[in-house]
Amino acid sequence: MKGQVQPHEILPLYRGIISGELDFEFAPTYYWTGRTTTSIEFFCQDYRVRIFVDAGELDYTDIAVAPDGREGDFDYWECDLCEEDDPIDYLSDEEHLLLIKRFEVKTNELLK
Asked: What pTM, to 2 d.p., does this model score?
């Protein structure tokens, strides 16, 4: 049985996107929609990550799939079996805003 994706594996992806060191691509039909409640899904470093967005705010990481096929999801990260929390919880308020800005920029590029 494969292990679970741990939050400490996803956090560097978020911070790499924020800093501009890592690029990402939205999954088909997913992109930043601004002030709605929805999900966004993207690929970065061969990971697939889906974030639930509530009224324009990054609420939680719904699921992450590693290149080796392991998965981690919100339900696992929030249960007692996991010693860490959802990766989004480790971002500062400023990092949340910067990550949203990166999603907005990528969306604007796609919609040109």
From this structure: 0.88
